[in-house]
Amino acid sequence: CRQLFRSPSMPTSVIRPILKRIDRPQDRDTPVETKRRRSVASTPSKEAAAEPVGDGEMSGSFCHEEIENLLANDHRELIGDFSKAYLLQTVEGKHQDLKYISPEMMAAVLTGQFSSLIESCVIVDCRYPYEYEGGHIKGAINLPMEQDMEEFLLKKPIVPFDASKRVIVIFHCEFSSERGPRMCRFLREKDRACNEYPHLHYPELYILKGGYREFFPQYQSHCEPQDYRPMHHEDFKEDLRKFRLKSR
């Protein structure tokens, strides 16, 4: 299976050796080089075609030189469509192929500190409805099932009116351990399937590290109602059983 996040944002140590193969040294006048230049002069060069990067395909609108320039100007990893670097500062998380942000970074987004660069921030709460109703981040959309995700985000994709701004999606569940990461991967997989590589409707995806459990105690003012209902709440055992059966 393709790695959904590592390839669009490959480390420079992997990408650069591929890119450097384009620039042939011009000052070596060895017999082999002389013969090679004569051959190139008489026949069209096949090396001009861009080598595949990431998932093994390359769109005509993205060439090696452009990616090289992006990497030279910004040492952060590139988002899923190679167009720019990730905007938000990330932290280490459970799943190495996904991008995590801290509760502090989430609060910075909610308070508009990135409003000049972000047109739309979609917060996807992957918890079950009874958890969401017991307290959630203001503005978060409750999408606990895969079909909910496809209906809301892919049936009519959210696109920025201002092309210079971004649409970012932040996933979380109770702990951001299983449900949030699973839904994040699901969206990227479906997004890849309905677009010509490397284009994506949602190239910039994040996970809220620690989930609602870690965010709520620090930023209750950003939650409504200002409460926290755990998945294993005593009063909702039947709801938990029902939703677990539906998600299988």
TrEMBL record:
InterPro entries, per the entry: MPI_Phosphatase, Rhodanese-like_dom, Rhodanese-like_dom_sf
Disordered, as annotated region: 20-58
Catalysed reaction, written as an equation: O-phospho-L-tyrosyl-[protein] + H2O = L-tyrosyl-[protein] + phosphate
Chain segments annotated as transmembrane: none
Record Gene3D superfamilies: Rhodanese-like domain (3.40.250.10)
A single GO molecular function term of this UniProt record: protein tyrosine phosphatase activity
BP terms from Gene Ontology: cell division; G2/M transition of mitotic cell cycle; positive regulation of G2/M transition of mitotic cell cycle; positive regulation of G2/MI transition of meiotic cell cycle
Protein EC: 3.1.3.48
Limits of the Rhodanese domain: 117-224
Enzyme class: hydrolase
Keyword Chaperone attached: no
Keywords, comma-separated and alphabetical: Cell cycle, Cell division, Hydrolase, Mitosis, Protein phosphatase
Compositionally biased region (Basic and acidic residues): 20-34
Matching PROSITE patterns: RHODANESE_3
An annotated GO cellular component: nucleus
Assigned protein family: Belongs to the MPI phosphatase family.
Chain's role: Tyrosine protein phosphatase which functions as a dosage-dependent inducer of mitotic progression.
This protein's name: M-phase inducer phosphatase
Gene source species: Haliaeetus albicilla
